[in-house]
Amino acid sequence: MIDFANIAPYLPGIFLAYAALLMGLISPGPALLGLMGVSLERGRRAGHCFAIGIGTGSLCIGILTLTGLSALLASWADAMTVIRIAGGIYLLWLAFKAFRSAFRPAQPAGDALARDDKTISPVGYFSRGLSLHLTNPKAILTWIAIISIGFADGTPLWVGWMIVIGCGTISTLVHFAYATAFSTAPAISLYRRAARWINGLLGVFFSAVGIRLLAGR
Where does the UniProt annotation locate this protein (predicted)? Predict the structure, then answer.
């Protein structure tokens, strides 16, 4: 049961978790590159189905992460400390990769899917997006970091569910918007020109949040 009278103390962690997800969605990865390829080659409808598959996969990983974390906390008191440290280290690794990308020439976007000429149904594109995200190590590690940001030891379970449901919804909507934008060539061109600045911003954000986790704050 949600205690609305005491919701305020948990809002900063919840919103920071949302912000971490948003920054992660900006960072190029298998899901984003796959979505770009589908939207550019197969059109907006295929991209939208693929995006919904990605969002569904994100929600599934979030639920598995939260339920697994809850069970672990119940059996091991120091589990949250270990997870928090792991999340912080992973965020610092993302920061390193973002800074490295910011200082090297932009690479052409690739297609994470095999290109073929056969007709694929909307369900087929949904399944491809879902399977791509469920097998994406980056998505799994990102969810561990996200949960560890806003769900500390002693935090009510409903806070974790707010993070999972909110982040799952945000992931679906953002990828849906990406599919709409990536079905037009000018949007891709603009994204590539801004890649250095985007990666620099990602590096700063991931560094700050990673250090915050490692410091235990």
Answer: Cell membrane
Predicted TM-score (pTM) of the model is 0.67
Q: What is the tens place of the pLDDT at every residue in 102-123?
A: 887 655 544 433 344 456 788 9
Cα separations in angstroms, 182 against 38, 138, 159, 199: 9, 22, 34, 19
Query: Environment class of residue 214 by beta-carbon count within 10 Å: exposed (0-12), middle (13-18) or buried (19+)?
Result: middle
* Whole-angstrom distance, CA of residue 73 vs CA of residue 67: 10
CB atoms within 10 A of CB 142: 27
Tokens 């949904």 sit on residue: 126
d(CA 197, CA 84): 28
* 103 close to 28: Cβ distance less than 8 angstroms: no
